[in-house]
Amino acid sequence: MAIRVEFIRRRPGGRITVRPTIYDKDNVTFGRATDCDVHLPDLRVGLHHARLICRTPEKARIEASTDYRVRVDGALIRRRDLSIDQDADVRIGPYKITLGPADADADLLIEIELVEAPTAVGESGDEDEIFSMKGYAPDKRISAWAVTVLVFTVFLAIPLIVYLDESGEPRQQRSTIDYLSPIANQNWLSGALSSAHANLGANCRVCHEQTFVRVRDDVCLSCHSQTRNHAPAQSLVAAAPDKTTRERWLSSLHNQLNIPEERCGSCHFEHNGANGVTPTSSSMCVECHSSMDRRFDETTLVNVINFSHWHPEFKPRIILDPQPDILSVQRISLVEHPKENNGLKFPHDFHLKDKEVIRKLATLGPVSQARYGDKLDCADCHQVDAAGAFITPIEMELHCGDCHSLAFVTEQNANVRFLPHGDPEDVRATLEDFYLAKATELLLGDRPSGVLERQLSAEARARRAQSQSSAFVDARTNTQNMIARIFSKDGICQKCHTTIDSGANSGMPRMQPVKLTNRYLPKAQFSHAQHMAGNTDCVDCHRAETSSHSSDVLMPSITVCRTCHNDTSGTKAIASDCLTCHSYHDDSNNAPLMTSTNAVVKFSDGAK
Question: Which helix (H) or strand (E) holds 16?
Fold first, then answer.
């Protein structure tokens, strides 16, 4: 189907010129835009005003765009079907459109004629005069100079005057400078201070000591004096990657602009508000650690590129011998299935599954039953600290005493006597005190202390002395028997502890000390609270249900962490970069930046 469009123009003298165009399709568009099929250059015509569709050689349909209308026989319409023999009067702006039968070259003939006077734009061709602001706004050159002077005054001159005036003597009354000072400082403030530096308030001079000079490292170190560097300066230089030509050029440019590199401000940017001053991108870490073995051979660190694919297995800190005063530990990879000697006998699987434990819980009081429920769970004994990061140390009286009671006797007045936990000498002192008190009570009976006794005969005094001697001998014997019972192989102590000296020579057994690991990864950050917020259970990461020895290291491997944490773009896992677990300015125990540690730990490689 084809449409023939003819522009009719009447010349002076009655001559008519026709400019035909044939469109090999069933519709044509009308409008002022140049991409329309029929271009009607008049402001009364919309950019895309209407469309005419040839349905059959006898019928057509005219459709106006959403914002426009077409006048047909004097009525403004959005859409109408037209017959060729109808001879309808169709108007779009000043143009008249007539439909008629076409010749052999087309199926429809459309004749377009300008029947009204054109607009001023169409007549003069100078649209700038109609649409410009000339006569309503100042000259552009004058406006540009006025804005330049205004910006110079408000953002440079006034701040400089305020800055230079603040160094003078204090005034007795408030001046114009005092009113302009907050406005001038606000104009030069690049953003809100981070929460770490919010205490500085509006006192910019605390950090910005010199005009037009970047904050110097000495100013940062005046507060962060305890901050530990990532590594010795010479090691950082040796491990740094080689700079490209562009990086060397930028470095030279920064030095010329008084922006030296290798400074605190090169990585930490203030005035970022809630974003803080710590960089969050791990690209800085990967630049050195991705190929450190090629540049720095004085380290044993393995190359790291990302967490999801190129990161070594965790190397927890394992206790080798709990007896020395200075704890001896060694970092061993989980690939080697390390075993630790913490001096404690504790089977996790027994406490989580065994029926005897369930029966024991059923015998406890209502308070303990409400606390533990029908069976033990990891969180019943292992509880996070106030910060939600680490697990608090296990205490026998608090976490074990409900089931493993240290009560050794119940007196007639229902007073329960407990053995102390910790030092065997304290156990002996408690037992001696109890049995000597019993011997004294047996000798004195219920006689009031103020009652005078009659003079005894010599024979009665001898019998009394013999009874006293026998009573205190029995007290010592009972104490030794109870000690032997408590510290025996089947006694309560050896259920969890190991005897390293039976006490045959010293009189008291000596137990192996217990040293539990609080942090297996001292160079990493971890928060249990964040991992306990969802539906994650302890046994999802820690395989305690299959551990029958306290020497088992129940820390999850990196494979377990990768099920949720992934730094590959496009994945649905939790985004994890280097700073998720590691800190740049950490000390030997990964303490906060402003805190130094006094912990004494001896590593197998000699590092402190």
Answer: strand 16-23
